[in-house]
Write a structure and sequence with these properties.
Layout lengths: L8 E7 L4 H22 L4 E7 L6 H4 E3 L14 H10 L15 H11 L5 E7 L13 H14 L1 H5 L3 H9 L11 E9 L12 H9 L4 E5 L2 H15 L6 E2 L3 E6 L25 E4 L3 E2 L7 E2 L2 E2 L2 H4 L4 H10 L2 H23 L5 H7 L6 H15 L5 H27 L8 E3 L11 H5 L7 H13 L1 E3 L7 H4 L8 E3 L12
Parallel strand pairs: 1-2, 1-4, 4-5, 5-6
Antiparallel strand pairs: 2-3, 6-8, 7-10, 8-9, 11-12, 13-14, 13-15
Length: 498
């Protein structure tokens, strides 16, 4: 008997203090963008945010937890709006205050463990400083304060998280802790500025070990809303096996060359040693483009991308909208509008929402929605400062809406007797497609990356001679789900278009 698909949660854990006001502001904006993007995809059952600071704060401010939000569920105890408001209202570090590396990393992970389900949580950890470790030369009053805080706040669970190795093994599901066995995957992002991405890697070794044992990844990146958002969403999209390559600037992926547990007896005292002499046991790579190199994330016998692989395509995201309730459609339109207003280039850097956007803008959803979204989109595109992002966003709009609707209007204008014969692609076929730019470049290239998906598309095309030959379940589908072209349009009236 096959197992049911795994249900997943996304938990964002971040240092809300050490990066100072400027860095934390960028991080909060990126987190807002990530929540908006992921909410529309509806690929996580729950989303939560946990902010941690240092021990100079009152106990209730050291860790702040939003609670869980089910973004598209009306019965969620925390709405998407409330989750975003939680992030917006988080207390900022004092402008000009000195950053202190006494951050409550262990307490943050203890709280995360307390909140998460037994299996299926993806943790996105954004850190600016390493955790406090029990090393004789650097242990001090703040370390002792954390050792006292953990059992005081979390009881027996807190005792399990006093040591970083226990933290990592607890989240990896290889060490039983007080509240029972749980398992998560941790993607760690250690943040800094562009000039120090190549600084002492051993400084970040605790997060490297944590990500390695939980089957995640460690990235060094910068305090930039654009970079953090694109890097994070890129990782999540490839984890969910969405198609496409995503440009990732200013980041370095760091991994172990050899499993450190096979080389050493791991302890807090030798975490830096796990990197090897002269960093001989680490492999840094500077990706400019993310491909399907992110390892499959395993939870027991369940491959975590299994459910999303069948769901997270541009066409299926649009289908979920079409089949959704009126409340769900309002939710999607609201979030698209919010993304457009807050970070319009964020929706356009990947084709995932292309068919969804044009579906929402279809006449069936109401001219008011369509007009409002298009007007807002075009207005926000003009405000994009980065020329590359502006061109990319304009191209996305043309591919997602303008070109599609121009073609659809031509098809609709044909008289009934010219609607057949036609060719169409069934909606249950593979969703891998070509961008307009790729198609336009075909005449000057025999690039296999372009020709292979073209061959896949051509092999899916079905020919229908008369209307009676059209399957009933296909004739009623929205054009965005079952693209069709009557052969009558392949004449001289529209050269090069059909």
């Amino acid at each position: 008997m096959s197992k049911p698909p795994q249900t997943h949660d996304m938990m964002i854990v971040f240092d809300a203090e050490t990066g100072r006001a400027a860095g934390v502001t960028e991080l909060k904006k990126a987190i807002t963008d990530i929540i908006n993007f992921v909410s529309v995809a509806d690929c996580f059952d729950r989303i939560g945010v946990l902010a941690y600071r240092n021990y100079d704060y009152a106990d209730e401010k050291v860790i702040e937890w939003s609670g869980w939000c089910r973004p598209s569920s009306r019965s969620s105890p925390l709405s998407a709006d409330q989750l975003l408001k939680f992030v917006e209202d988080l207390e900022m570090p004092t402008v000009g205050s000195a950053s202190k590396s006494n951050c409550a990393s262990k307490a943050a992970l203890a709280n995360a463990y307390l909140q998460m389900r037994s299996n299926g949580t993806v943790v996105l950890l954004y850190a600016h400083a390493p955790p406090m470790l029990g090393l004789e030369d650097i242990s001090g009053p703040y370390y002792r304060a954390e050792q006292e805080f953990l059992p005081k706040k979390y009881g027996k669970l807190g005792d399990c998280f006093k040591n970083w190795i226990n933290c990592a093994n607890g989240l990896a599901g290889t060490a039983r802790v007080a509240s029972g066995l749980k398992k998560a995957v941790v993607f760690s992002f250690t943040l800094g500025s562009a000039h120090n991405l190549n600084d002492d890697t051993s400084y970040w070794s605790p997060y490297l070990y944590l990500s390695a044992v939980t089957q995640g990844n460690l990235f060094r990146t910068i305090y930039s809303r654009r970079v953090i958002f694109r890097l994070t969403i890129g990782l999540l999209l490839f984890w969910m096996r969405a198609d496409g390559n995503i440009d990732i600037p200013e980041s370095i992926r760091i991994s172990y060359t050899f499993d450190p547990d096979l080389l050493y007896t791991v302890s807090e005292a030798n975490l830096a040693t796990l990197c090897g002499s002269n960093y001989s046991n680490i492999t840094p790579t500077k990706p400019t483009m993310l491909h399907n190199e992110i390892p499959l994330l395993l939870h027991g016998d369940v491959i975590t991308h299994q459910k999303q692989a069948n769901k997270l395509t541009s066409r299926n995201v649009a289908r979920e909208y079409i089949n959704g309730t009126a409340l769900y459609k309002d939710f999607i339109a609201k979030h698209l509008n919010r993304i457009i207003k807050t970070n319009v280039s964020g929706i356009a850097f990947h084709p995932l929402y292309g068919q969804l956007f044009r579906t929402v803008c279809e006449k069936q959803t109401g001219d008011k929605v369509k007009t409002a979204l298009l007007q807002e989109f075009r207005a926000q595109v003009n405000l994009i400062a980065d020329d590359k992002d502006k061109r990319q966003t304009q191209n996305w709009l043309e591919e997602s809406y303008t070109l599609f609707h121009e073609i659809n209007e031509k098809i609709s204008a044909l008289p009934a007797h010219l609607q057949f014969p036609l060719v169409y692609i069934p909606p249950d076929q593979d969703d891998s497609g070509l961008t307009r730019i790729q198609l336009l470049s075909m005449w000057e290239s025999c690039d296999m990356d372009t020709l292979k998906p073209l061959g896949d598309i051509l092999s899916q095309v079905h020919y229908v001679k008369e209307e009676k030959d059209m399957p009933d379940n296909k004739s009623r589908l929205w054009p965005c789900l079952a693209p069709r072209i009557p052969l009558a349009l392949m004449g001289n009236k529209d050269p090069g278009k059909f």
